[in-house]
Design brief:
Helix content is about 50%, strand content about 20%. With about 200 residues, it is α+β, with helices and mostly antiparallel strands. The strands form two sheets. The protein has a four-stranded antiparallel β-sheet with strand order 1-8-3-6. Strand 4 and strand 5 form a beta hairpin. Helix 4 packs across helix 5 and helix 7 crosses helix 8. The N and C termini lie far apart (about 50 Å).
């Protein structure tokens, strides 16, 4: 399982075998069953979590008990509740596996030690944090400005394998639209693929 992380890290930074062994020694591998949770509302999130394979989601409940998906995580993505992690306060969120998944985790204390000991990892971590902030900005923008169809297209580009892997209502909640609207959009796109417009010139 760690080999997946090693390949991922080597794609992004130059790192020695010795430093990789230090990172490996500080990590723990965890196998998750489908629907198994690794964070429940009210718990403190104390880990960095890398998804070696599978699919997870971050979600929370509103006052009416409806769950809202804030983020999906797929292979070679990170999954976290950043607020609980930063402040070590009880989380308002949940993290669950949407399929049988393998993850690698580092306790916060060990991860901070790794960042101090391995400068290349520290720079990479800072880049990850910056990228996550930029992604959050883009997500807020398209939620408040995109049409339902545009949200669907954006989601397909970001998570090309998700639709066949998770319940439709989770995708709809992530996009901030109703399940019925999402079903209609998907149906329209399926029709357009099966029946492409005919070129009047015959080409």
């Amino acid at each position: 399982m760690f080999e997946v992380f090693e390949k991922y890290l080597r794609r992004h930074i130059e790192i020695s075998d010795e430093d990789l062994e230090i990172i490996r020694a500080a990590s723990a591998e965890k196998k998750l069953r489908k629907w198994q949770s690794i964070l429940h509302e009210g718990e403190v999130w104390r880990y960095n979590c890398f998804i070696a394979n599978g699919c997870c989601r971050l979600y929370r409940f509103d006052k009416n008990g409806t769950d809202h998906t804030l983020r999906f995580g797929v292979e070679s993505w990170w999954m976290t509740d950043q607020e609980s992690y930063n402040h070590q306060t009880p989380s308002e969120y949940n993290i669950e596996a949407l399929a049988a998944s393998n993850v690698i985790i580092w306790p916060k204390e060990k991860w901070l030690e790794l960042l101090e000991a391995i400068p290349a990892l520290k720079l990479f971590n800072e880049k990850l944090t910056a990228n996550a902030y930029e992604a959050s900005q883009r997500r807020i923008f398209y939620l408040i400005s995109f049409s339902a169809t545009e949200k669907y297209l954006e989601f397909e580009q970001t998570y090309p394998s998700i639709f066949n892997s998770v319940p439709l209502h989770m995708v709809a909640s992530y996009l901030g639209i109703s399940r019925e609207t999402l079903s209609r959009i998907r149906k329209d796109f399926t029709k357009s693929i099966k029946n492409p417009p005919v070129d009047p010139k015959g080409f």
